[in-house]
Amino acid sequence: MANARVLVVEDESIVAMGIKHKLETMGHTVVEMVASGENAVRAAGEHVPDIILMDIVIKGDMDGIEAAHAIHEHNDIPIIYLTAYADEEMLMRARVTQPYGYIIKPFKSTELNANIQMALFKHKAAKKEKEIIKKQILDNFHNFIVQAIPTSGSQSEMEMRDMLFNAFGERLEEDMKPSFEYKMEEFGISEDTEDGQDIFDSYLAWLSEIFSDFGIRVGIIEKSPRWYFEFDNCPWKEEAKNNPIFCINCQAIINRSFDWTNLEGSVKRKSTIASGSDSCIFTFNL
In terms of CATH architecture, what is 5-124? Predict the structure, then answer.
């Protein structure tokens, strides 16, 4: 049986102490007990527990479901909901956060432990699957770039860059544009959307997700009218030092995808890790 570090979110102190006792009896460790959604978000970031037991109906401006949304923006932590209520509307809201369990109060220790063990197993399996998919993406990306490197030395560096930039752009139209269009629809963005900020915010969310799938940590800084899109790491740092094609591909992704938004403005590469900078930075000027 796997023992877990557990964050308990429960605003009834007696109930919280009862849960804590059950967990410790089963061999788990309670990293903290909190009574509000705001503190749940704070504690999740501080402790990064193995699992969170989240009461849905809690005091404060943020209920358990809203807290789960906020936690998932920064941490991949499995959440099991605890609640005395089971109405359909609440279930529908809870499902959106993809919980690993849903326990109706009052519950037995055996039921609680079974849900924790299953959640830990499912989360580990899902994480492993994501790593496999990510590795496949990185391998495919690496192979694509290597195959695109010209063997002829007759072309100038500028001609080679332009040729590869266009080749990457054409490939992106086939491989990524459908994903972009689907995500925009999911965000409620259509051809009739007039609010440029809504379009740009949705675009940045999609772009961040794309690079996160490559294993790249992304940061966004707003200094209106400029926005800075920053990479804190690079999976191909050593390769990029020896061959700038790896950097050209990232630039092609950003330049070509920005064109898909039909927004007025420009995007430029400000710095790259491969050239010795601390981060890769792209500047959007709107």
Answer: 3-Layer(aba) Sandwich (3.40)
Amino acid at 93: R
pLDDT surpasses 60 at 21? yes
pLDDT at 225: 85
- Whether 222 has a pLDDT exceeding 90, the answer reads no
Question: Which single residue is written with the structure tokens 């544009």?
Answer: 177
| Type and span of the H or E element at 273 | none
pLDDT at position 213 over 70? yes
Pairing type for strands 226-231 and 280-285 reads antiparallel
Buried b (16+ CB within 10 A) or exposed e, 86-102: eeeebeebbeebebbbb
Of 58, 67, 68, 127, nearest in space to 97 by CA:
68
Per-residue pLDDT at 281 exceeds 60: yes
pLDDT band at 141 (very low <50, low <70, confident <90, very high): low
Give the whole-angstrom CA distance, residue 264 versus residue 182. 22
- Would you say residue 158 has pLDDT above 90? no
The stretch 229-251 carries a mean pLDDT of 77
The number of residues in the chain equals 286
How far does Cα 187 stand from its chain's mean position? Answer: 16
Furthest-apart CA pair in the chain: how many Å? 78
- Single-letter amino acid code for the residue at 272: T
Residues of the chain with CATH 3.30.1380: 149-285
The angle formed by the CA atoms of residues 187, 93 and 98, to the nearest 5 degrees, is: 80
- DSSP letter, residue 276: T
The CATH fold assigned to 149-285 is Muramoyl-pentapeptide Carboxypeptidase; domain 2 (3.30.1380)
